[in-house]
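Contributing: when you submit paired examples, paste them exactly as shown. First protein:
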Amino acid sequence: MPNRRVTVNSHTRVMPLKTFAIICRWCGNRATVESYPGRPPTLCSSECAIEARKDHDRRRKAAKKAGQPAPRAAVVAPIALPQRFVLWPSQVDRTLDRSLLGPFGTGLLGTLKTKADGRQVLGILDSLLAESWAVTVRWVVLECVRREPEALTARLAVALTPDPLRKEVQWQREVDDLRSQMIGQGRLNRSQRDQLRALGADVSNHVVGVQMRGLGEEEALTATQRVVAERELAAALVQLEALDG
């Protein structure tokens, strides 16, 4: 635990500092702040503290002129974060889809030989398909926040509605069918290799394509839009986790 040396009236004392994970009540961002033990801090930086104080003073003076008590400082409610899914497209781990394709056919799909290789590819496809729904939800939220906020509720309701006709559901059936052919040892036949390569490319290209669209929207957000998007993403992904069990 870090410490801070404090001197009061020639008396020196080493005070232990505690690390707090907070959501700043001024800017709304998550931050890690070191402070003395006790009540957790509510502001993430000196800049936010200055702006929050200016805002409070303005509101206090306005209330005084109107003969009313000074309003309390606004407090941003904590965000309930998803447990399984990351919040932003930029936080997504691309290791799995890159391992499938690789440069110049060096990925797993280009070097398929045995049933063990096939089982490894199917395991990766399971993970990509589980992430695909979250990738779509992120893109819908970010596109709406940036381009058409009034459409967010309707589009998100569609994105969060389970649909047996979704591509991901059909691909999952193909994965399950192929898994029954990967039992035991031995080499893959030509038909099995072709099926695995076609399915792997379809799933990977779809997930990466939607992921890149979401990343583009994230990078184009203004600071104000980012604060709104963070709350909408958290709420939508928490809801998705409840649906996806």
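Second protein:
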Amino acid sequence: MVKKSLLLIVFFVIVSCSNYVFYSKSIPDSIKSNYSFCYNSKGNRIDSIINLKGYYAIQDIRDRYGLNDCKVHIYDTLYINLMFYADGTFVANFHDGNIERVKNNKKSIDSYFKELITDSIECDIFHNSSYWGLYRFFHDTIKVQYINHPSKMGLWHAGEKWYGIIDRNTIVEINTKPIDTKEEIDFFYKYYYDKTKTDTAKFVPLSVVPSSDCWLKKEKWFWCNEEDWEHYMDSIGIER
């Protein structure tokens, strides 16, 4: 039991205290070549169209019937969270990491972010995990492109989603597709794509929002202008 506990402690220390030690460094060329957006830090002026001082939550209700031989209808409610920054950065799939609140069914993104901005380890995890990327605004539609950041044993994934704007506090997912290899794209459309499904995301205000200084901003290929990337790296004190 002691040995198992020590192994768990070592694992979480590695995950928590490293930027690129635990996470995979090499982004597949197939993702880079299919990722069509680039970061310029100027933003998209989308705050006049939708609220940005918070995040958007999609309620996903799932029925356990038929799962692991379950013979009754048991419904679980999950929330998929996404957030748009004024500088054009996008993040999704973040959640409250406080174990006590999760256990007591009192999850709060606002409380989590308040704790995160004063905790360097939690802040590091936030900026190096989740699904980070960029968004662009086209008339009444927001298009996002995101990339996960897997561990060295994990798999890379990148995708594109389109959200139709209903009002300042409501957006609805109207299209989704992977932007990985052709094989993964074909697999997605064959087994996962459901063109009849639409997910509505509702705005949730926040009292504090962590910075958008995610791991992708350290990647030169992610920027529109190489000089801007150099200035950014200098500003955060990382050798180029």
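If you have annotations for the second protein, write them as plain sentences, like these:
The chain is about 25% helix and 25% strand.
Strands lie at 54-63, 75-84, 89-92, 131-138, 141-148, 158-167, 170-178, 200-205.
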